[in-house]
Structure formats: structure tokens, C-alpha cells
Amino acid sequence: MIYSDDKHSAENPFFVNPKDPAYVLDSGTPCCLLKEEYWMREVYLQLKRSRERQEKGQKSEESESAQNSPEKTVENVPFSSKSPGNLEVILCASTYCPSCRTMVYDEEIMAGWKVDDQNLNTVCPHCSGNSGGTTDAVAATDIANQDGVFAPRLKIRMQWIQEMRNSWYQPGGLQESRNSSPEKSPTPQETCLEVAFVSPLVLRRELETILTSDKDAMKNESIRTTHPVVFWNLVYYLRRLSLPSHLFSWISERHHIRCVFDIPTQHDESRIPLYFYNPNHDGNPVFGAYNQKLQRKLEDGKDSNGMASWRIVTDSVNKNLLFKAVQTLVNSSRLVKNGSVHVGAHFPIFRDIQFASIDVFGRALLRDSLDTQYDTESNKLPPKIKEILPLQDHPLSQVTRACRKVFMPLDLF
């Protein structure tokens, strides 16, 4: 059973004991470890007092400036509380492996970290398996130079939005003040940042170093600029763990911080994900120039296979016929050259099915069932086909699945 309208379906073959604290977050229940209302009550009171003082000061400044000059230009501050709506903050850790040019996603990055890591590197699951294992005698510099070893990056996208997206992550902060008038200037454009994505052990070590030199460092808002790697990684893990924090209020007093699998605009045109072909995404600015490019290809008849594959895959998942979905994507990337069969450059088959299914079915998708059934159905492929499939099309390892299940689920984009 892969897809079901019944959220409490007992047919899910990957049963997780809800009493097991290791997987309680995978249910997607927000604030199930610590209630935000209890933890953030004092923080919100301080924010309200600060906002009231700011509004009183702004009114007095506006009255003075009105007397001195007939017009006043309002500076367009990206995180200004006077901007309408909420500040949407998107955190995405997916990173291209520089060796095989395949996108490596959050749980795969985490599975590549080692307990004794002293650097920021992870191991790509798609190309590192092609080389022999390393020994403890190998120098760290040699390991860093090996194929499939790279330093992942955490991408941050911030933009003011009027309407909330459907998300596993709840918006937070204060409600919009009734006394404040929205800025007349245009809404600020998207702000993009990027920092190193580090393991929890490395993050803990860095945080301990900061607190050793300054025990009050986490009380100072300047940590966002003085230690951006620590700040943004803390925000990422706190959101994935659904834990409240005063750090969020330093980004904006009204925020919607979401952790996502994918940022559509970061993909290579030669490996476009299948979910891009969803007709509901036509005109969605999140996809940037890809919308127009795909539309032109479809109109010219150059990419009709992509749309057909999307329809077959989503329909197959809806009817619990996963083997048909796998077979469709294998055939779409299969090439015959000089009498031999091989596969061309393509987006990972499992991720294509997973993302297209999340995009269409949302929370009705039985995510654990998709993992186990993909493992089963991909083994039914003919041996000659299985031999030519790259590692990116293999089922996720048990460690990778566990790295995903100990956190809150990710939004798609």
C-alpha cells in the first residue's frame, strides 16, 4: 500500500511504534517534544513590548519629519516588521556532488557523516561506492580529495509572503500589528544566503567553543552575522526537531521557517525532476525560468515523454502499481548505442517517484511504504537492466532511512 486517503491505514507494511521516541517526529506532529506556547511566552512578551516602543518612536519621528519635509522615502529593509505578511524562510541542504553531478539530499548527507568527523565533509552515496573503502591510516587531506567526498551546503531563501504554504512546519512569531501601517514600497525581493551544512556533532563542538569564550553569546542577536554557520545550522536542526527557540525571532518577528527537500531553480537542465511537469506548477515563480522552457518544449513536441511519464508515475502510485512507475522511468532513460544498452543522464528514479508523489498526494502518501515497496519492485527488474542502473537508482540504505525518520518530514519545495 503506497497511497491511501485513510491517514490511519493499518496496511502500511513499515510499522513504526508510535511510543518509540526515536521516530515520534516522523509523524509530522508539530511541537510534540516541547510546546511553543510554554517555552516562548516570555520571548513573545518582550517582542510585543519592543514593538510597541518602536511604533511609538516611529510615530513621533513621522510627525517631526512631516513638519520638515512634505515627502518621506521609506527604506526597503528585507526583515522590516512593517512589511506585510510573514517572512518565509526556506532551508535546503541538498547539494550537488562535484564528482558525479548528482543531487545528494539531507538524509543521504547525514548518512555519510562519521561519528569521529573533524571536518565538514560527507560521502556521496552515488559515486563513493565505486571506489574502495578508506583506512584510518589515510590522511584527512587525501580523503578530502577522493571522489564522492565533499562539503555540503545549506541554502537559505527568505522572502515576504502574503499567503502561507501548506507545510509540515507551522508559522511562528507575533501576529501582524493592527497599529502599524504596511510599507508603501515594493515587497523586497528574495534574499539568498549559503553556509556550510554541518553534522550535529560538529555543530555542538563549534557551539561549545563559542560559549567557552563568551557564555552570553546566545543572548546576542549579532551571532547571526558573526557566526552564520552556527546560527543557521541551529535554526535548521531546531526546525527539524520541531523545537521552539528565541533564535527565530532574530530573523523576523513574524516568520514561517520551512525545511525542504528541493529548491527547483538549483537543478541542471539535463536532469530535471519529474514533478516539474505537474501542470499545476505552470506560472509558479518558484520554478523560475524552467516553466517557460518546459512549456516551449512541450509545445514543440520535444519533451512529450516527460509529461507522459509524470502522468503514468502518479497514476501508478495512486493505484499502488509501483513496478509500472519504476519500469516507465527506466525505459525513458534507456539508450541503445552500438548494440549495447545503457542509461543516459537522468534524475534518480526513486527521488523522481518520491517527489512526484509528495507533490500530488501530500500527506496521504505512505512514505515508509514507498521506501519498502521501491526496494521490492526494483529487485524485480531483469538482471541485465539492474546491472546498468547507477547507484543513484538503488533503494535507500537503512541508515539513510533512519536519518530521515528521526526528524520532522521535509516539505518538497
TrEMBL record:
Domain of life assignment: Eukaryota
One cellular component (GO) term of this entry: cytoplasmic vesicle
UniProt-annotated stretches for the region Disordered: 50-80
Feature: compositional bias, Basic and acidic residues: 52-62
Record GO biological process: regulation of Rab protein signal transduction
GO terms of molecular function: guanyl-nucleotide exchange factor activity
Name of this protein: Uncharacterized protein
Species assigned in the record: Caenorhabditis brenneri (Nematode worm)
Lineage: Eukaryota, Metazoa, Ecdysozoa, Nematoda, Chromadorea
